[in-house]
Write a structure and sequence with these properties.
Elements: H1 2-24, H2 28-45, H3 47-59, H4 65-85, H5 94-100, H6 106-132, H7 140-165, H8 174-187, H9 205-222, H10 230-258
Helix pairs in contact: 1-2, 1-4, 1-6, 1-7, 2-6, 2-7, 3-4, 3-7, 4-7, 4-9, 6-7, 6-10, 7-8, 7-9, 7-10, 8-9
């Protein structure tokens, strides 16, 4: 039983690294290289990921109890990976962001962060679709897991850095802050506007919301697996649009927080 746990931990660690690297990469070729390397590793080595997402795929569109249970197991797997990944994400603090974007206002830094994250998410969808069009097809379920983890990682990192840009980081130590940003991702709100607590307990409203968001996110990742390169185009467009929308929602919350 130890082997799946090791693989499970490994994919969340690698996803956190890739999400940070691809967000901060300025060169489109470098983003594609990072994502392609991660996707190939996920499709060939993440056996636990493949098992988890197959359950989501088999349960989609059916109404039987067994199908619902399989879908629930797949969503539980993704949820566990995201919770494990969040505190491993590399987040730049306010000083690092000001050094990266010298002379820019918080709003200008926020705009740059949102556009960078949108490009990274779009690249993740585009690479998944392109790899899926190769003659030797990879394991589709692992590809969905890989894209979902990277895109969610990009978006959580974006939320964290937007809070830093506006001088409003979540309170507490690193795990507490990253849990707050993960809750913000689930709620689509700034940390100060999240209703209730940020405890990811089994059966809690927050855990239920997180699982629902991840199921929807995995569904969007499936568009990247369309035939030929239509999947790459659909995945890129959907990812970029959704990440940009999320960033704008968080930025607007942080702007309202600054109003007297």
């Amino acid at each position: 039983m130890a082997e799946p746990e090791t693989e499970s931990t490994d994919i969340s660690v690698r996803a956190a690294e890739v999400a940070a690297d691809v967000t901060e990469a300025d060169n489109p070729q470098e983003r594609r290289r990072l994502l392609s390397t991660f996707n190939r590793a996920a499709s060939s080595g993440a056996r636990a990921a493949a098992r988890g997402t197959r359950t989501v795929r088999r349960g989609a569109g059916t109404g039987t109890r067994a199908a619902r249970e399989r879908a629930g197991a797949g969503t539980s797997y993704l949820t566990a990976q995201v919770i494990e990944m969040a505190p491993r994400l590399r987040v730049r603090d306010q000083a690092a962001l000001q050094a990266r974007f010298p002379g820019k206002s918080p709003d200008e830094i926020a705009d740059a962060l949102i556009e960078g994250a949108a490009r990274a998410s779009a690249a993740a969808g585009g690479v998944t679709g392109a790899v899926s069009a190769l003659p030797v097809l990879p394991a589709f379920p692992a590809e969905v897991v890989a894209e979902t983890l990277v895109v969610v990682g990009v978006e959580i990192k974006l939320i964290a850095e937007l809070h830093e840009a506006y001088g409003a980081p979540a309170p507490g130590n690193l795990p507490a802050r990253m849990s707050a940003y993960l809750a913000a991702w689930a709620h689509r709100r700034g940390v100060s506007m999240i209703p209730g607590g940020v405890l990811f307990a089994a059966g809690s409203p927050l855990m239920w919301l997180l699982r629902r968001r991840l199921l929807a996110r995995a569904g969007r990742s499936a568009f990247s697996l369309g035939p030929l390169f239509t999947g790459a185009v659909a995945g890129a467009v959907l990812n970029g649009r959704e990440t940009r929308k999320l960033g704008q929602q968080i930025r607007n919350d942080l702007r309202r927080r600054e109003l007297p």
